[in-house]
Amino acid sequence: MNIQSVFSELESASDFELFRLQQAILKVLDDPDRVQRLKQKIQVGMTVDYFCAERNTLITCQVTKLGRSRVDVVELESQKRWSLPFHWLNLDHIEADIVTSKPNGLSKAELAVGQTVGFVDPRDNQEHIGQVVKLNPKRVVLAIDNKQWSVPYSLLFPVLVSQAQESKQTLLLK
User: Fold this and answer.
1) Domain range for residue 125?
2) What total of structural domains would you count in the chain?
3) Ranges of H-type helices in the chain
């Protein structure tokens, strides 16, 4: 399944159509046979990724316990422990990034907490670069020089950070 094309189709769906689709998906995800098939693919100790909707990114973790309907994991980077539904695990290594065809700015779906982005402040035409701290419905919170900025998604542009970062050089894409 091409998630990118599905996402493009969803942008034109009505709210009611999205709600009906959400309910149909939940019904399929709760199917006991489907859950059992997923559970059989997972073993305690294995390293997997799960999709964190709050941070909008894949998080690497290790399975610590299998329950009847959930899996307990520990994040490898932060050591945080979670109990997750089996379907949150990316067992098939599917690409999770979604890129929209919006001409201006970035969408919430394209961003992840910790990602480096930039924007030009319309008040003084000054360019700022920072890391995503939080994804709100209409604005993103960026950490820039130990301060937090609330910026509309429409002003954002991606910033590629490379090995040049060590020498304080950043490559900007506009």
Assistant:
1) 108-172
2) 2
3) 3-10, 15-29, 32-40
Residue from 112, 105, 103, 100 nearest 153 by CA? 105
Reported as a single tens digit per residue, the pLDDT across 98-147 is: 665 556 788 888 899 999 999 998 888 889 999 999 999 999 999 999 99
Is 131 in the same domain as 70? no
DSSP character string of 128-171: EEEEEEEE-SSEEEEEETTEEEEEEGGGEEEEE--GGGGGT--E
Q: Which pLDDT score, from 0 to 100, does residue 94 have?
A: 86
Please return the burial class of 108, using the count of CB atoms within 10 Å of its CB with bins 0-12, 13-18 and 19+: middle
pTM greater than the 0.85 cutoff: no
